[in-house]
Specification:
Elements (H helix, E strand, L loop, with lengths): L9 H11 L11 H4 L1 H10 L2 E6 L2 E6 L2 H9 L11 H7 L8 H14 L2 H22 L6 E3 H18 L3 H21 L15 H30 L10 H9 L10 H32 L1 H15 L6 H4 L3 H13 L5 E5 L4 E3 L2 E3 L4 E5 H5 L2 H4 L14 H5 L20 H18 E5 L7 E4 L1 E4 L4 E6 L1
Parallel strand pairs: 2-7
Antiparallel strand pairs: 1-2, 3-11, 4-7, 5-6, 8-11, 9-10
Helix pairs in contact: 5-9, 7-8, 7-19, 8-9, 8-12, 9-10, 10-12, 11-12, 12-13, 12-15, 12-19, 13-15
Organism: Kalopanax septemlobus
Cofactor: heme
InterPro entries: Cyt_P450, Cyt_P450_CS, Cyt_P450_E_grp-I, Cyt_P450_sf, Cytochrome_P450_Monooxygen
Length: about 475
């Protein structure tokens, strides 16, 4: 039965997390017991699948690959749950959170926006942004640099250019407000919110979140109004540009009501692109540099590959597709430090999962780290950085079991920006490797935390040597 597991109090979970993250760790990649100590210990006590209670709601935690695959792929039977109040402020009702027809409409537009041809047209903006970053790096040659902060600026620059065609500064305020919202969400992620209470009482965090939400809304609306004006002035009515915002505004003005987006839809998608596009790529790049700063043999292999393909020339789309070693390194980094450490789905109607009958409305939790770091799946060296495990591709590395490697989710709701993120990461890595070698700085403190994504709490400091 589902009711055999003891009821865990939230303060116990919060205390376990607080305790495990209260001090830095040694340079190991064993971050599961640190970031989710409650799940780590329960999996050891209760086995691969178990139930716990989150306030008034039962949660079914699953790490058995077949069950994970079924819940992630069958979107109709196991839809995404409604986002918590704070998360809704961050992402609105965009592609990450919306459902059914609305989701299908948004996904169709996003598929078009991140299609291979669209990505090719975004490459120059990515290259220009990396060049700006590397220009800054000239001040740090022979010295220490925090690449986490650098990549934060880079990824926001890339999104500002590819989403809004504007430079970083116009988008900077939106980024700052979204960052603040992200911090508030993380602070509240393990608190149970009682339904209806916010009608009478709002916490400081709720008041602040509403203020930020309004600020973001107003800023994106201003950029949209500028576009509308430019379109009218140029006499090209209906031409709003070829970037992401241009596509969204075209959908807002679609003649067919079924395909039409509202202004709120446009704003929600912009928020999603900002948050998902920046967070994931920033943390991915920072962890890659961290790992290559320790494993300089792999750094050298990657550099050789880049130089063989491009020499000192700017990377091009065709060459990027041939980066095999760099790809292996990216996959191994995503395995050890996945940006998202759990996925949640809801059981629509009572169903049988494995040997258990699961009632409707139970939440299914898939803890990514449990799968990514499982020695039964990856071998005794599961906690070691070994990119060679991906030398024959993901299918071979996972033994044809897609549910054990979930950096971008799985099934119809998997991350639509997967190629956007990996493309940007490859361009940045190739251009860094052409110009610099680097080692992890002795001042680096290994303290992974989860603030929306898995990140280095004190940044990633490396010593930068020009080649």
């Amino acid at each position: 039965s589902l009711l055999q597991i003891p009821l865990w109090k939230h303060d116990e979970i919060l205390n376990m997390r607080k305790e495990s993250m209260s001090r830095p760790m040694d340079l190991s990649h064993n971050i599961f017991p640190r970031l989710q100590p409650h799940l780590y210990s329960w999996l050891n006590i209760y086995g691969k699948n178990f139930v716990n209670w989150y306030g008034p709601r039962a949660q079914f935690v699953v790490t058995e690959a077949d069950i994970v695959k079924e819940t992630m792929i069958k979107d109709q039977a196991y839809p995404k749950m409604d986002p918590e109040w704070f998360a809704k402020k961050l992402l609105g009702d965009g592609i990450v959170t919306s459902k059914a027809e609305k989701w299908a409409k948004h996904r169709k537009l996003a598929n078009h926006a991140f299609h291979a041809d669209s990505l090719k047209s975004m490459t120059p903006a990515m290259i220009a942004s990396v060049e700006m970053m590397l220009e800054r790096w000239k001040q740090h040659e022979g010295k220490e640099i925090d690449v986490f902060q650098e990549f934060k600026i880079l990824t926001s620059e890339v999104i500002s250019r590819t989403a809004f065609g504007s430079s970083y500064l116009e988008g900077k305020d939106i980024f700052d407000m979204l960052t603040q919202l992200g911090i508030i969400i993380t602070r509240n992620s393990y608190k149970v919110k009682l339904p209806g209470i916010s009608l009478f009482y709002k916490s400081n965090d709720e008041i602040e979140a509403e203020k930020l939400d309004q600020g973001i809304y107003d800023s994106i609306l201003r950029i949209m109004e500028k576009r509308e004006k430019a379109s009218t002035m140029s006499g090209e009515v209906g031409n709003f540009g070829t970037d992401f915002l241009g596509l969204l505004m075209k959908a807002k003005n679609d003649a067919d009501e079924k395909n039409r987006f509202t202004a709120q839809d446009v704003i929600d998608e912009c928020k999603t692109f900002y948050v998902a596009g920046q967070e994931t790529t920033t943390t991915l790049l920072a962890w890659v540099i961290f790992l290559l700063g320790i494993h300089t043999d792999w750094q050298e292999k990657a550099r050789q590959e880049v130089v063989n393909l491009f020499g000192q020339e700017i990377p091009n789309s065709d060459g990027l597709a041939k980066l095999k070693t760099v790809n292996m390194i990216i996959n191994e980094t995503l395995r050890l430090y996945p940006p998202v450490i759990f996925f949640i789905r809801k059981v629509k109607e009572e169903t049988k999962l494995g040997k258990l009958t699961v009632p409707a409305n139970v939440h299914i939790v898939v803890p990514t780290l449990a799968l990514h770091h499982d020695k039964q799946i990856w071998g005794d060296d599961a906690l070691l950085f070994k990119p060679e495990r991906f030398s024959q591709g993901v299918a071979k590395a996972t033994n044809n079991n897609p549910a054990v490697f979930l950096p971008f989710g799985l099934g119809p709701r998997s991350c639509v920006g997967l190629n956007f993120a990996t493309n940007e990461a490859k361009i940045a890595l190739a251009m860094i490797l052409q110009r610099y070698s680097f080692t992890l700085s002795p001042t680096y403190i290994h303290s992974p935390v989860q603030i929306l994504t898995v990140r280095a709490q004190h940044g990633v400091q490396v010593m930068l040597q020009p080649l």
